[in-house]
Amino acid sequence: MITDFYNIDEIEKQLAPKGITKTSIYRAISTGKLKAVKIGKRWIISEKALNYFLEGNSYIETEVH
User: Rounded CA gap, 45 and 33, in Å?
Assistant: First the structure.
């Protein structure tokens, strides 16, 4: 399975028509509503995490034992 990854600028371009700003994206990351990984100075968001966020859910990873 191949997962796409996005940075903040790419997500902002996709979500601008919906009124979601860069500030909103950063806020969602800081509150845990949008899962992201910081690599250097950039935040990277998986397509799966973005879809959960857009559906109004927080991304919660479940551990498999």
Answer: 12
Q: Give the angle 16-17-20 at the CA atoms, nearest 5°.
A: 45
C-alpha Rg value of the chain to the nearest Å: 12
Q: How confident is the model at residue 55 (pLDDT cuts 50, 70, 90)?
A: confident
What's the gap between Cα 33 and its chain centre?
8
Concatenated DSSP letters of 1-64: ----EEEHHHHHHHHGGGT--HHHHHHHHHHTSS--EEETTEEEEEHHHHHHHHTT--------
Enter the pTM of the model.
0.78
